[in-house]
Write a structure and sequence with these properties.
Elements lengths: L8 H17 L6 E4 L2 E4 H53 L4 H6 L13 H17 L5 H6 L17
Antiparallel strand pairs: 1-2
Length: about 160
């Protein structure tokens, strides 16, 4: 079984151009082709191939334009990141008690998180370890050591399968 290699757009365009060149060179001897029970002129085939090349070139230039626009957008975001972040932080400080006003700016109030005491941290770690054991959760190295076992092997000549 062979696998068909996917050709790049450059190779496809080169193949189309080679077909155009060959058909143009031998247009006098190959005036028409029968494709799918219909007769097609060589000039029509050349026109179709040229249209494929033109469409591919347009796609490439459009892609380049899009990539340039994405890069410009990323550069603009990077250059204004400090300003926008500062404005957000200032708004969070000014309107800290007013959830409705922060929502007008698309912001959520900061969550008050009190740090855990050492006793709470020990309790949380023990609870997490117990949950991991109850769910039989394993890390990647532990998973590698787990192997399945086969109890019986059903062969091709097994009378029960027939």
């Amino acid at each position: 079984m062979s696998t068909k290699q996917k050709l790049s757009h450059i190779h496809l365009q080169a193949a189309d151009q080679s077909l155009i060149d060959g058909l143009t060179k031998h247009e006098q001897t190959l005036s028409s082709f029968v494709v799918g029970s219909a007769s097609t002129k060589t000039s029509d085939i050349i026109t179709a191939l040229q249209a494929r090349i033109t469409a591919a070139n347009a796609a490439q230039s459009t892609r380049a334009t899009w990539q340039a626009a994405v890069k410009a957008s990323a550069n603009e975001r990077a250059s204004t990141h400090t300003l926008v972040s500062g404005v957000r932080q200032t708004l969070l400080v000014i309107f800290a008690g007013s959830i409705d006003t922060l929502a007008d700016f698309g912001l959520k109030p900061r969550k008050d998180r009190t740090p855990l005491t050492p006793e709470q941290q020990v309790t949380a770690a023990a609870k997490a370890k117990a949950t991991r054991a109850a769910r039989h959760t394993m890390g990647s190295k532990q998973k590698k050591s787990v192997k399945g076992t086969v109890t019986t092997i059903v062969g091709a000549g097994d009378p029960e399968r027939l």
